[in-house]
Amino acid sequence: MRYISTRGKAEPKSFTDILLEGLASDGGLYMPEEYPQLDLKELRGKSYIDVANFVLSRYAPDIPVADLHRIIDRTYRAKTFGTREITPLKMLEPGLGLLQLSNGPTLAFKDVPLQLLGNLMQYVLEEKGEQLNILGATSGDTGSAAEYAVQGKTCMNIFMLSPYGRMSRFQQRQMYTLKERNIHNLVVDGTFDDCQAVVKEVNADAEFKKKYKLGAVNSINWARVAAQVVYYVYAYLQGSSHDSLKVDFSVPSGNFGNALAAHVARQMGLPIRSIIVATNENDVLYEFFATGIYRVRKGNEVAVTSSPSMDIASASNFERFIFDSVDRDPELVCDLWDDLKEKGSFDGRFITPRFGYTWQSGRASEADVDFTIRETYEKYGVIIDPHTAVGMYVGLQCRRQRTPLIVDETAQPAKFEDAIRRSIGISPPVPKGYEDLADLPEHTTRIEPNADAVKQFIIAHVK
Ligand SMILES: *Cc1c(COP(=O)(O)O)cnc(C)c1O
């Protein structure tokens, strides 16, 4: 299995090569040369670990099978994810399921791919005898999931910039109370965009980046996508009685990583009728599916919503999906992304008519989210977080008789107490093991939001 760039001008690489890299050298994203096919008969009745072994060994043939199995086994434990199923499917009523992806250490679905990524990276770095210093910016879930994935790993340090006071209280406590030698919470007086701009500027210094072995764990990492394919397959096997039944998945979407994983699962032969892309008021993706025009937003056009992990200006994984949608023609992808760079948008009206019911999309306003949290609670006695509520609202709008609908639960309500209180007037229960979070001391460093300050800090803290 080789990985090729969506822009067609970079050398094909192996899984372990692209694991530690970001963009391909031509600015594109890596994609597997072809999609390996699932054997649903063989996988029926198997555990999460078995399904993960099947899927991931096909994407990472350059890791010896025994080593890969050991890494998977160590990653997906009931102790870390709350249940042996790892991502249990909870049926709310016949034909409507909630895929519980957020029972990992930081209570958001990003733990599923990032816990694996941390272990995979540590393995590859150990093999190569190398160190990696991860530099990132977060507005919430990514930062804590990355820190929990990297904590205690001997080959990695992590430097995470976050905007002070702009994450939910729970998210803030969760990140800032981590106390590990290799974790550095750099707190900025400013916005997420300020943080991201600084990270970009530091990365633009190629010499510094090389000397201090800077890397990232961002959402374009292929291993993350591959790890997410596993739960779609596993959910399908749990939610269907036979392999000819098609199901719909509704995916609360931001950077399009999770929806892309559903697409990959379908390309591998998973019987999915419709992938439903659910956005909040930041509806870049909905607009594309509705009109064929993909238009990225300017910073000041991004609304602040109750589902902050979906408040995006553009969707970083979208290029992979377009690559497949234009029959993997890299020149066409280059043309579209040239347009995007020049005009801030591209015209994909020649693409969207092909989709039919295979892709659907919708958008949930803040009022819709509020209503859906309340209704789900009243109807099923289940509290869902605002991100999941976006998926639930849009999913129910697209639902068809006789096609089971599975909605991705992407975060636990405990992370977004204020929004839950607003909708239903009570606080979500604090999950077991998180009761003490409020009392732990915080470990942060205030830093000026400029590249020099961050560079100095990195220099002082890596060996
Ligand atoms: C990251 C995130 C999303 C969006 O997922 P993408 O893969 O970026 O589309 C949705 N919900 C939650 C809770 C998240 O943390």
Structure description:
It is built from 19 helices and 15 strands. It is an alpha/beta fold. It has a domain at 86-108 and 222-424: 3-Layer(aba) Sandwich (Rossmann fold). The strands form 4 sheets. Strands 3-4-14-9-10-13 form a 6-stranded mixed sheet, with helices on both faces. The mean pLDDT is 95. The structure holds pyridoxal-5'-phosphate. Pyridoxal-5'-phosphate (PLP) binds at residues 108, 110, 141, 219, 252-259, 309-310, 387, 410-411.
Q: Give the CA-CA distance, first to last residue.
A: 35 Å
Structural class, by secondary structure, is alpha/beta
Radius of gyration of CA atoms, rounded to a whole number: 21 Å
Regions with pLDDT < 50 over 5+ consecutive residues?
Answer: none
Which fold name fills CATH's third level, the topology of the domain at 86-108 and 222-424? Rossmann fold
List the helices and strands and how they pair.
Blueprint: E1 3-5, H1 15-19, E2 30-32, H2 40-43, H3 48-59, H4 65-75, H5 78-81, E3 89-93, E4 96-100, H6 111-128, E5 132-137, H7 141-150, E6 156-163, H8 169-176, E7 183-188, H9 192-204, H10 206-211, E8 214-215, H11 222-239, E9 247-252, H12 257-267, E10 272-279, H13 284-291, E11 293-295, H14 318-325, H15 330-343, E12 345-347, E13 359-363, H16 366-380, H17 386-398, E14 405-409, H18 417-424, E15 445-446, H19 451-461
Parallel strand pairs: 4-14, 5-6, 5-8, 6-7, 7-15, 9-10, 9-14, 10-13
Antiparallel strand pairs: 1-2, 3-4, 11-12
The structure holds pyridoxal-5'-phosphate.
The site of pyridoxal-5'-phosphate (PLP) has 17 residues, from helix 12.
